[in-house]
Every structure is written in structure tokens, then in C-alpha cells.
Amino acid sequence: MRQIIDVDVTTRRVDLVKCKTDMLAVGRFSDSGDPGPIIRALDEKLDGSIAWLAKIGDFTGKAKTYAVVYGNGRIAAERVLLLGLGERKKATLDTLRKAAGTAASRAVDMKIKHVSLALHPSFSRSFDAQTMGRVIAEGACFGGYRYDEFVSENGNGRAGSLAVEIIDADASQIKDLAPGVAAGTIIGRAQSAARTLANRPGNVIDPPALAKAAQEMVRGLRTVKCTIFDEKKLRQNKMGGILAVGSGSRSQPRLIVLKYTPARKPAKDLPTVALVGKGITFDSGGISIKPAQDMDQMKLDKSGAIAVMATVRAVAQMGLPINVLGVVPSAENLPSGTSYRPGDIVTTYSGKTVEILNTDAEGRMILCDAITYAVKQKCDVVVDIATLTGACMVALGTYKAGLMGNDDKLIALLQKAAEDSGESVWPLPSGDEYADEMKSKIADLKNSGPRWGGACTAAAFLRQFVGETKWAHLDIAGMDLFVKPTEYASLGSTGFGVRLLTTYLMNLVEKKH
Known about the structure:
It is built from 15 helices and 20 strands. The chain has helices spanning about 35-45, 50-55, 95-110, 130-145, 170-200, 205-215, 230-235, 240-245, 305-320, 365-375, 390-395, 410-420, 430-435, 455-465, 500-510, and strands spanning about 5-15, 25-30, 65-70, 80-85, 115-120, 160-170, 225-230, 255-260, 275, 280-285, 325-335, 345, 355, 380-385, 400-405, 425, 445, 470-475, 480, 490-495.
């Protein structure tokens, strides 16, 4: 298979007009008559070319716009990429992240191998250098990503790597940016690895292959122990939910456990956090089969699982002093003569019984076993992430993930992490009124509720397995996929959740709560 583009992000001390590079990227806000000292300095060398673009209305700094000006030997850079930052009063960290992503994406499309970013000065009034360095590196990795492993023809001539550097003439500023760049590169690469695994089709990634990918993802990380439960071990532990969902496929189900124990002892007040991710490698719906349209996208039903795997890798590579348990239940949901059926009653790992009304409500069946496992490991906090319900997408569209839970402080922490990471969430209810809808007359629970409030009743179902443990649920349906490319991202998997979960754990360590 073809190798995914390798994006490397570094820093360099250099004056921007003397910066020798294939492309120099700078930003401008739309609501300021003054383009700022960086653009003024470049425009002076470029004989007013940038000011002319503004005068004729071709580039005014409007959000999601860009323009290219060529150096023609007047500056060291061959090209200047002007990026629209929108209104300054609306600028956020994600504005900066997406600007870096747009620069990297344009570089890939233009077959440029080296791009220099001078974006951070425009945001220095609002954010510290380390945070800006992290966000720019995350954005560069995100924008430089392309999924073309199975494209056999090399006619597009795209480069195998992209070198991105953040430049500044001030040595102290470079020093302040560097730690954030290092962390952001780790997070960005972890998210790219997650996107690649999620994009791989069901004939490449089945549950055993996902387990092998988890082992590969943490190989060489001495602080992470990977344990795989095969079908035999699942039966020994009576994990009936995972086994039921996987019963229709020749690819046997798995439970993947990634235990991260930091080299540096965590602070006493830090919780042990379990991250649980739904790993359905392909979801046909089972006997309750889905419509044919867009079923190909069901290879992305493993996105939650992969977000957890990539987060554990990122946390381990950064050496965060916090105990983390990644729990990934994985199965392939297919119809066959051995599939679980509507009407079946399944005994889960917790001992609770579940009446099956719809085999396409399979995610909650594997998650309940994994959540129970995390609780039994005495984790203080459980956060699960899953492409769980179409109902969440109906409620929130493709703009925000649903956030539910049993602890207001945990929900607030995840909201803060969402704001910092640019991976948006919106709180939804999952209380007793929704749990009542999931009660069965012939078993403890049923796996499918009424037509209305499907995201909330699904979360309420999962809530029955957490006991008194602090718990939050992220329903990322609709957030896992770019159906078409944007100015800063290619189509396919988004890797949603990697930045959010990693930022949540970083904020815990840094006591941002």
C-alpha cells in the first residue's frame, strides 16, 4: 500500500523576508483596516502586490479565503499564501488551527514540499506561545493528511512528505513555541494515524486486524501494556454483549485493553481514567439490515475505538502523569445463520439481561460489556466515545457531538476540552425518564427504545452499567466523516475525539479544572 504523507512540524528563527521556503503563510483579519506589521513588511518588498489584491477585492481577509502572491526574487520565499482569518473579535484557537490546516492542505495540493508559517503573531494578544505552537502543529498535521493508500497510479505526483516550520525572528518566542509544537505534533500524528485506520475498509480491518493495529500503535511504548481478549477469553468472562454482536461474522470479536502506567507518578488527586471506544469494524445492521445507500460508510463505525487507541498512544508519547485505561470492544455486525436475532435475550458481562429488539442497535451491546470491565478495574472516571445513533445526527447535524453523563463536573471538563481542541460537543439529557424507556417486560433492559430521543435513550441504556462511577458518553455520529473536502481537510475520516480526549487528559494534569 502507498504510504500516507509524513507531516513534520518544526520551529526556526528567521526574519520572514529572508525566509527561504517554497511557501510562506501569513494571516489577515477582515475587520481591520491595518493588515498588520507582517503583511506590511512583505508588501513593501513585493511592491504593493498584497495591497493591490485588497484594493480590487480579491483578498480582504474574509474567513475561509486565501490568495497566493509570488515572490519573483523580491523576497526569499517563492510564494506567499495569504489566509483569511475572518473577524478578529470572533477569532478562537480553532481559527488558528484551521488556518494552519489550510496552509498545509494548499501546500499538498500545490505539490509543495516545504511551507513556513508566520500565523501566530496575529493571535499573540489572545493566546500564549505554547498553546499557539500546539494548535498550529495539530492543524498542519490535519491539513496535510490525505488518504490514498490504495491508489495504485502515481500520476498526481504528490510528495511523500511535507515539512512545516513555524518561524519567528525572536529567539525567545521560538523557545516558547517549541514545547507546544512538540505536543501538537504528537497529537496531530496520532489523529492522522486514527484517520488512516478508520478509513481502511472492512475487508482490511476486521476485529483481529484492529487488535493487531492496536498492538502496532503502542509498540515500543514501555508504559503501555496491550492485552487482547480473543473469542475464547470473551466466553470465559461471559461477555455476552460482544459475543452476540460478533456471532454473525467469520471474523471473531475481540476486546482490546491498553493500560497506560506513566513513568512519572501521578499527583494524588488525579483520577484513573478509562476511555472506552466502540469498535464495530463494519456495521451492516445485522439481521435488522441497513438500507444499501451509504452503507459503505459503515467502515467508520470503528471511529470511537480508534480515537481511544490513538489517544493512549499520544498520552504515552507525551509521558503525561495520569493513569489511563483504554478499553476497545470490537466486532463485525453481519447477518448470517449464526447471527443474533431480534427477540433474543442476551446476558451481558455485568449479569444484566437485554432483550434484542433491533440488531442494528449493536454499539450499546458491545459498549456495555466494555464499560462494565472498566468499572470492575476500579477506574474513577469512564468516558465512552461511539458513533452510536443516527438520532444524535438528526439532533445536532454534523457540527457537534452529543455529550451526556452522570456528573456535572466531568461534563464541564469535557466541554472545556472541546473548546480547547476545536472538537465541538453539545450536552444532551440521559436521565431516569429516558432509562424507563429502555426497560423490558421480559428482561432487565431492551436494546432499542421508542422513535423519539434515540440518542438520549441509548445513553440512558449505557448508564445502567456504570454504577456509581463518574461517567460521560460522547455520541460522535456525524462527526466521524468529511463527505467532501474543505479548505483545511480532505474527505474521509476526521479522527474526531483524539484531540478532545487528549486535551481533556492534558487539562486534568495541568489542573485546568
